[in-house]
Amino acid sequence: MWELIVVFLKLGIFTIGGGIAMVPILQDVLIREKKWYTEQEFVDMIAICQSLPGVVAINMATYVGYKRKGFLGSVVSTLAIVLPSWLIIILICKGMAVLSDNTYLNGALAGFRAAAVGLIIAAVISLGKMIITNAWSVAAAISAFVLIVFLHVDTAIVILIFLALGVLSAAVNRKNLAKAADEEGGDR
Amino acid sequence: MTLLQLFLTFMKIGVLGYGGGLAIIALVYDSIQQFGTISEEQFANWVAITQVTPGPVGLNIATFTGYGTAGIIGSVVATLGVAIPAFVIVSVVCKVLFKYMNSWGVQGALTGVRPATIGLVGTALVTLVKPAVVGDSRLGASYIAALGNTSLDWVAIGITAITVYLIMKKKMNPIIVLLIMGAAGAVLQA
Fold first, then answer.
1. Is B137 helix (H, G, I), strand (E, B) or coil?
2. Which of A167, B13, B113, B148 is exposed most, by the fewest CB atoms within 10 A?
3. How many structural domains comprise chain B?
């Protein structure tokens, strides 16, 4: 339980930008450090959390907490991710004028942001190596990117489309397998 | 009364706000008009700040708006309001999903969506890159001004490149890399 609290407090502090910016750190902790998830399970978690309504960061905290320690785990993780950002914003509200004029702080935040971009690039490459294995998956990754960035299709809709395609192809495969098994049986 | 309204408003945002982060900003702006205490300029400032400060954008914006409307209690109420629906929905979905995780339907769906998820994570780059390595979005700068400026920031590009190198080749801990780059940014840009 403590592990969950520490992990999500850290994420609450070091996530710059939206929920997806959590991915690189979460990846490092869950896959490499704690070994709670395989790459595939990790990507499944992202897909499921993105396809559900709500703030993605909360979705991920709830999901990971629930999978690890059930209901209580999800409560603890969610509170842990909320707390740091709440505190930081309150501090900013209280001392906005002082903070926004501090060049060192501004420089540090700019450094954070640029590094966050690098972290996500690294996450895309390392997860991509595991998941993108054939022509279909290359096409799927590129078309998801194009649909969201250039055609402005809602992220959740893009995910639902690919979930549906996955079910469809699984259903077709099952049918083919059943057919093949039938024909084999007929030969005997 | 205001507190209850604040809670319900952010609960609605929590339910309707698909995709999180920047996707919910327009929704938040429309929803808070009823409180009538926040100007467009002030809101744009908050959005700019939430993008560069630690913590998920969706939560930050809720905290800001709640604080601006009803002080500290307002910020707690708004933050919980936005968090609770997501929490409930995901808990219920997890309960059902983990039970059927090995069925052909769930496995098929996940197999279909995995590569798309990679593309999706990539899209976060577009929203992050704009204020981070293109132009200047200092704390408190207006959101529009931040997006309008297109001069390339070579220091930021350098930091990004070194980060990728340290993570991919040196397998360094991402939090340590973030701290180093934050320090570098403080020194270089001051």
1. coil
2. B148
3. 2
Q: In Å, how far is B25's CA from the nearest CA of chain A?
A: 11
A119 close contact with B: CB closer than 8 A: yes
Q: Which residues have a Cβ under 8 Å from the Cβ of B52 and sit 6 or more positions away? A: A16, A109, A110, A112, A113, B131, B137, B139
Domain extent for B159: 153-190
Contact with chain A for residue B156, Cβ under 8 A? yes
Alpha carbon distances (Å) from B142 to A70, B41, B137: 42, 8, 8
Closest C-alpha among A107, A122, A110 to residue A25: A122
Does residue B107 form part of some domain?
Answer: no
Q: How far apart are CA A75 and CA A27, in angstroms?
A: 21
Check CB contact of A99 with chain B, cutoff 8 Å: yes
Which tokens sit at A123? 């996450």
Report the residue of B12, B117, B151, B155 to disrupt the A interface, i.e. the one with the largest count of A CBs within 10 Å: B117
**pLDDT tens-place string over residues B66-101:** 888 888 999 999 999 988 988 899 999 998 988 888
B116 in a structural domain: no
Percent of chain A with pLDDT over 90: 18
At B148 the pLDDT is 45
DSSP, collapsed to helix, strand or coil, labels residue B169 as coil
* Residues B96, B157 within the same domain: no
Is residue B54 helix, strand or coil? strand
Instruction: Report pTM.
Output: 0.78
A75 pLDDT tier (thresholds 50, 70, 90): very high
- Note the ipTM here: 0.77
